[in-house]
Structure formats: structure tokens, C-alpha cells
Amino acid sequence: MSDIERNKQIVVDYYRTAFAGDPERAIADHFGPVYVQHNPDAADGPEAFIGFVRWLRGAYPELRLDIKRVIAEGDMVVTHSHLDLEPGNPDNPGQALADYFRLEDGKVVEHWDVIQAVPAKSANANGMF
Questions:
Q1: Which of 43, 55, 60, 114 could cross-link 98 (Cys pair, CB 3.0–4.6 Å)?
Q2: What CA–CA distances, in Å, run from 98 to 47, 56, 112?
């Protein structure tokens, strides 16, 4: 398996494990010695990440993260996902996420994201995913 394919698997396992409700395991398995966060609403480090995931799952216990695409180049992995905070609620169709992860030695060390609300109506029939 190439390093790029391995990096993709690491990120997918990290992301799914965390949002399934076990951010501590995601960190233990996949965080590097530092974790630099570029989202201005989130702090650096594993404790901040755990707090965020715990808060989000507490507010939205049924949330579902569906990773639609994973692309990678070198030490960067990008996921395109649908975060559905309230599955089945037509008034809250969720968010489209583009997450960028940088890895060092097979560990997640840096994160950027772009978040967009999924609109109720679209000017085209293509869908966001």
C-alpha cells in the first residue's frame, strides 16, 4: 500500500472514530505530537478536539457523518463529507464539509476546514454530494 493510500485510511478512521463518539481513541490512534487547528472557532490540541466532539454529540446525539470523497497528495488528505446533525429533519439538512488534514509520520498534525450549510433549495439538480 502506498503512503498516500495509508494516509487516506488513517484520516478516514480518525474522522469516523471521533464522530462515532470516541474522540479519545481517535486521538490515541492517530494524533501526532502536536495538533494545529486552523478553524478560528477551535483551539489547538487534543483536549480542545475532545471537548468539541463531546459538545457536538451532546447537542446532536443522532448526528451522522458520511464521508463522500477522499483525495490525497503527499502528506495532505482532503475529505468531502455530509454532516447531518438531525437525520430525518427536513428543516435541517446538515452541512457540507471540506476538511484538510496534514500528516507527519502517519499521524494527523494539522487541520483546516470549510463548512457550508446544505440549502433547502438549489439552482440546479446536481446536489452537493
A1: 114
A2: 22, 18, 8
What is the residue extent of each domain of the chain? 3-117
Within 20-61, residue ranges assigned H as helices are: 23-30, 46-59
* C-alpha cell belonging to residue 44: 489547538
- Please tell me the pTM assigned to this model: 0.93
Where b means 16+ CB within 10 Å and e means fewer, 19-28 reads: beeebeebbe
Its CATH architecture, for the domain 3-117, is Roll (3.10)
Residue-wise pLDDT tens digits, 14-39: 999 999 999 999 999 999 999 999 99
